[in-house]
Amino acid sequence: HPLRGFAKSRRLVHMTLLFVAVLGAFLSGFAIWGKRKRQRLLDTIEVITLSGVAATQLGNQRDITVYLPPHYRTRENERFDVLYINDGQECEALALRDTLARLTAARRIRPLITVAVPTNDNRLHEYGTAIAMNRLGLGLLAPAYTHFFVEELMPLIESTFRTKPEAGLLGVSLGGLSAFDIAWNNQDRFAVVGILSGSFWWRADDEEERIDAGRRIAHSLARRATMPPPFRLFFQAGTRDEINDRDGNGVIDAIQDTLDLISELQAVGCGPEQVTYIEVAG
After folding, report:
1. For the whole model, what pTM was predicted?
2. What is the DSSP string of 223-275?
3. DSSP letter at 215?
4. Backbone phi, then psi, for 163, in 5-degree steps?
């Protein structure tokens, strides 16, 4: 009978709608559960802002963001490794808190006190090499930034939080060059330095007298060393960091500059246990 087919179709429609409603409720509940779980994970990393930390030689100030590891408040007698990061203004965009929470929970890293140090409009002058500006006149304020970092910021962090001696320092691009330079000039203060896509093209002026004239400055620092630095070094470069290949050998400058610096470090005595290099394709 035609009405039987109609009733059967209507029941099928109702069952389909019910299934869709139940599935939608399940997915919605799952999403809410996932969001709450992620928030609970994020909450294990406490975020503190130190406002208006002054850099006396630079004549400016900046807000420093500190990420405290899980159980920092309850393990009152425990001290923690500390990691400083240049370009700290990017840490929220890079989801640093989420990364710290996930890796700590998975025990892929030890609990860290992480200090994000932001830059400002003077980045091209504050980040550089303290021994000399580059041939473009950039890096004028690098000595003052180093003074701020080592003589003002680090003592503040060490007196405010329960840090272990010898820190880690991480930077990307020009911030990576800055990290290398700060650690190189203060070798007793650091245990490990991370440089991602480091700006090791930084080259001295042809008239420079304090470092090898016309040569890449970081490489010159390593070449002039009489012994390897005491800290470990982690380098990373990507095959698409840039497209420049000044000598046309098929290797982009960002990678070649990094590998050349590693060669200089190896020549002064840095072994494979001290230097790590990761190249990321694509």
Report:
1. 0.86
2. HT-SS--SSEEEEEEETTS----TT-SSS-HHHHHHHHHHHHHHHTT--TTTE
3. S
4. -95, 155
Q: Measure the CA–CA gap between 183 and 194, rounded to whole angstroms.
A: 10
Quick check: 140 and 133 in contact, CB under 8 A? yes
Distances in Å between the Cα of 110 and the Cα atoms of 37, 70, 227 are: 21, 10, 30
For residue 190, give the nearest of 173, 171, 207 by alpha carbon.
171
Record the tokens describing residue 94, joined without a space. Answer: 């890079």
Residues 186-236 pLDDT 10s = 999 999 999 999 999 999 999 999 999 999 999 999 999 999 999 999 999
Q: Which residues are CB-neighbours of 272 under 8 A, at least 6 positions away?
A: none
CA distance 100 to 181: 25
C-beta separation of 70 from 111 below 8 A? yes
